[in-house]
Write a structure and sequence with these properties.
about 900 residues, alpha+beta, Rossmann fold, Topoisomerase I, domain 3, six-stranded antiparallel β-barrel, four-stranded parallel β-sheet
Length: about 900
């Protein structure tokens, strides 16, 4: 019996069926160890020694593998066929060697690009050793990411409060988004006009031709810059006669695109299906690991992390066979098509993403897939088969027309395209995807019959005004394409990098576009000012190229680390002398359009409009940056720094306090103001003035005296409880509107209820809260939203429940919160197991019986590779879930 190790339980289940009783397939659940999230995990002074840590959940996985090995004939490492997969195998083997459980038994490494019976059995017949250069490349990347993150992030925390982290690839991706925003802010729109004529042939057919020349000169795009010029040319065309000068019909062949790579799949899924990059990879992972097709579990697509564009010869043959059967011989080119990648630094030796069997037409397996799986599989199947189909044959017709008005001449052009043979378009038709040319564009539409030298009748002259538009913000898809073009990051990390930017609140997504937030722009401006080299596109791409050369065995990984660390460490040391005033001066200049937007009255945007003498500047507070007056505390004007450059505050009339009236009791003035945390009501002046933030949903422009008085008077006394005789009051707190009685709180449904709820209703709400909380407060558990079955390790059922802070997965004593936006009813067993494993790892592992601290420490020390005592981890953040996932760059 042989022990086979793969990453996931789903993959293990599928492969186990293929291999039979002579094998025991176990899952590692991703990486079994990682660098602890604390100082001292990578030691540059000790030749970059890396101190690995096995978390609690992974210790159990390793124990299961070790126990199985005791009675086995050998170990087969069958993790994914990429750098991360190679690293997982290396980690597993290294830990098992340290446990001394291999004992001379043969260890084999096998890789397969698809989880099908043939692919798995063929791989088993051709084992190899672990690819050491590929592991070295992983170690170099992991060390670099750690050194950048754990040395640069603390600089941000000290010099730029509110900033959360920086990363080797993450920060460069953020810079792309912020640079585009700066382009948009600097953009100056220009007017231009387009002129065209609706003309009729002698046969009565109408078509449109656009003006391309006048006064003997060719008109460049947007050459007509004002209405006066447009009017002159329109008058010329209105009185002109028209004759066809030439008609040229030119046949054009359009070739198909190659099969999908990781980035092109993410781009197409974004454009056609509206999937985020992370959603695309989640669905693709399920299609790769295996789906039950009529009682047989089979992988439907090849490995989905790749920048290769070629298909295996047998796959090409299968595609050509399917084309002949399903579309006919006319759609089959004489020779197979071969593709080569154009992406910078493309290095993966894997196939493109394709169906494992082209005979599995999407319609035939529709009933076995959920909606998202079917959509993505359909996209992959169509693109894969189209890549081997015949070219589309298109006839492009260009008609040149002369206009003559009493000797004043102009030239017009009409262009149309007709698809004479659809070819590959019969299988895969593009909308214009982010960053990709449309496959089936029909430029100018279809033209009627037009003959040279025939006269045309004018029907109408169109003159339309336009204004140039700024470059669009990046979408996830177009950002991925740009990163790929520049050679930044790798296919396996694009989705994780984008997710990190969202999780850090550096960017938000609005109408599928990435909008940099103020926090993200501050971080980028800081790094560009003081760590310029490390957010340069070329530097990052060159470093990626070096890492790829390590994979190829051309460079020593520690030499690359030494070269990087020498300059990077010197830069970090230089920032120790950096004063906050230096930082603020640099950020004021770099972010002037954001911090000091232009004012409608043309006054200096850096002069405080409240006191009239102070200068506005960025200020750093505990929770981040805001704009404040230099005359503080005499002038306490502040403004929140918004992603719209403060324009929001100004448009709401909050650039200075707005008087609302006087409090009838105290006589103090009520004012509406804007602070670093948003708009608020203030009564009186000075440090002791009472303030109340506007509740969510309340807009500053809707605030009047009555609302301001109601808000500033909170909490509101409702009446005494009939049973206790104690006062019930209502208010708005950190977690929303509430009732308070005798030290106990109950939530209200809306902010309006705070001001309107009566005594009877308040008593009822409090009673309902007490009855509902009775069981839970005494150790009860919320009812399950979804049952997922027994945990494979035992210890009880896995359930999805709803708690105070949102839905979570429960197993025994482990509660793992679902990621923001996750549908609790859509969570799968595999996703739940990963969340539980990550949570158990952070909390020390055990779910049923927590081991004694001494035992836990001993086990951790035993499983950790150490040559020097690491620094104490006191007051450091807990280890992240990266140990359970493929590391993100």
């Amino acid at each position: 019996m042989n022990v086979v190790v793969v990453e996931s339980p789903a993959k293990a289940k599928t492969i186990n069926k293929y291999l039979g009783p002579g094998y025991k397939v176990l899952a590692s659940f991703g990486h079994v160890r990682d660098l602890p999230a604390k100082d001292g995990s990578v030691l540059p002074d000790q030749d970059f020694e890396m101190l690995w840590e096995v978390d609690g959940a992974s210790q159990k996985r390793i124990k299961d593998i070790a126990d199985a090995l005791k009675t086995s004939d050998g170990l087969i490492l069958a993790t994914d066929p990429d750098r991360e997969g190679e690293a997982i195998s290396w980690h597993v083997l290294d830990v098992l060697n340290k446990k001394r459980v291999i004992n001379g038994k043969p260890v084999k490494r096998v890789v397969f690009n698809a989880i099908t019976k043939k692919a798995v059995l063929d791989a088993m017949a051709e084992p190899r050793d672990i690819d050491v250069p590929l592991v070295d490349a992983y170690l170099a990347r992991r060390a670099l990411d750690y050194l950048v993150g754990f040395n640069l992030s603390p600089v941000l925390w000290r010099k730029l409060p509110g900033a959360r982290s920086a990363g080797r690839v993450q920060s460069v991706a953020l810079r792309l988004v912020c640079d585009r925003e700066s382009e948009i802010e600097r953009f100056i729109s220009e007017e231009y006009w387009n002129l065209s004529a609706i003309l009729k042939t002698p046969r009565g057919d109408e078509f449109e031709a656009r003006l391309v020349s006048a006064d003997g000169k060719r008109l460049q795009p947007r050459a007509i810059g004002n209405g006066e010029e447009a009017g002159r040319l329109k008058a010329l065309l209105e009185g002109a006669s028209y004759i066809v000068d030439t008609v040229e019909a030119k046949p054009v062949k359009r070739n198909p695109s190659p099969p999908f790579t990781t980035s092109t799949l993410q781009q197409a899924a974004s454009s056609k299906l509206g999937f985020s990059a992370s959603r695309t990879m989640q669905v693709a992972q399920k299609l790769y690991e295996g789906v039950d097709i009529g009682g047989e579990t089979v992988g439907l697509i090849t490995y989905m992390r790749t920048d290769g564009v070629q298909m295996a010869p047998e796959a090409i043959d299968a595609a050509r066979h399917a084309i002949a059967n399903q579309f006919g011989d006319r759609y089959l080119p004489e020779k197979a098509r071969f593709y080569s990648t154009k992406a910078k630094n493309a290095q993966e030796a894997h196939e493109a993403i394709r169906p494992t069997d082209f005979d599995r037409v999407p319609d035939r397996i529709r009933k076995f897939l959920d909606d998202d799986q079917l959509k993505l599989y359909d996209l992959i199947w169509k693109r894969g088969i189209a890549s081997q189909m015949a070219s589309a044959e298109i006839e492009r017709t260009t008609v040149e027309i002369l206009a003559d008005n009493a000797g004043k001449k102009a030239g017009l052009r009409a262009v149309g395209s007709v698809i004479r043979f659809d070819g590959f378009i019969a299988a895969y038709t593009d909308q214009k995807e982010d960053g990709e040319q449309s496959d089936d564009s029909d430029e100018g539409g279809r033209l009627p019959e037009i003959n040279a030298r025939e006269n045309l009748a004018k029907q109408k002259i169109n003159s339309t005004q336009h204004f140039t538009e700024p470059p669009p913000r990046y979408s996830e898809a177009s950002l991925i394409k740009k990163m790929e073009e520049l050679g930044i990051g790798r296919p396996s990390t694009y989705a994780a990098t984008l997710a990190t930017l969202r999780d850090r609140d550096y960017v938000t997504i609005d109408k599928r576009k990435l909008v940099p937030q103020a926090k993200g722009r501050l971080v980028t401006a800081f790094l560009e000012s003081f760590f310029t080299k490390y957010v340069e596109y070329d530097f990052t791409a060159d470093l990626e190229e070096k890492l790829d050369r390590i994979s190829a065995g051309e460079l020593n990984w520690k030499d690359v680390l030494r070269d990087f660390w020498r300059d990077f460490f010197a830069q970090i040391e230089d920032t120790k002398e950096l004063r906050v005033t230096n930082v603020l001066d640099a950020l004021n200049d770099a972010l002037a359009p954001l911090v000091f937007p232009k004012r409608e009255d043309g006054s200096d945007p850096r002069v405080c409009q409240v006191c009239g003498t102070g200068n506005l500047s960025l200020k750093l507070g505990k929770y981040g940056a805001f704009v404040g007056c230099s005359n503080y505390p005499e002038c306490n004007y502040t403004r929140q720094l918004s992603s719209e450059g403060g324009a929001e505050a100004e448009s709401n009339g909050l650039n200075e306090p707005k008087a609302l009236g006087a409090d009838p009791v105290t006589g103090e003035e009520l004012t509406l103001r804007s602070g670093r945390f948003g708009p608020y009501i203030q009564r009186g002046d000075g440090k002791d003035a009472k303030r109340a933030s506007l509740p969510r949903g309340w807009k500053p422009e809707d605030i009047d005296y009555e609302k301001a008085m109601a808000l500033i008077s909170l909490p509101r006394d409702i009446g005494k409880h009939p049973e206790t005789g104690k006062m019930i009051s209502s208010g708005i707190g950190r977690y929303g509107p509430f009732l308070l009685h005798d030290g106990s709180y109950a939530n209200l449904e809306s902010v309006e209820d705070v001001f309107t709820v009566g005594l009877n209703r308040a008593v009822t709400v409090l009673a309902e809260k007490q009855n509902k909380a009775g069981g839970k407060a005494r150790g009860g558990t919320p009812a399950a939203l979804k049952e997922l079955g027994e945990h494979p390790d035992g210890g009880g059922a896995i359930t999805v429940r709803d708690g105070k802070y949102g839905p979570y997965v429960n197993w025994g004593k482990v509660n793992a919160t679902l990621p923001k936006g996750t549908d609790p009813q859509a969570i799968t067993v595999e996703e739940a197991l990963a969340l539980i494993a990550a949570k158990a790892g952070r909390s020390g592992g055990a779910t049923k019986k927590a081991p004694a601290k001494a035992k836990t420490a001993a086990a951790g020390a035993k499983a950790t590779k150490t040559t020097a005592k690491p620094k104490a981890a006191a007051k450091k953040p807990a280890a992240k879930t990266a140990a359970k996932k493929k590391s993100a760059e």
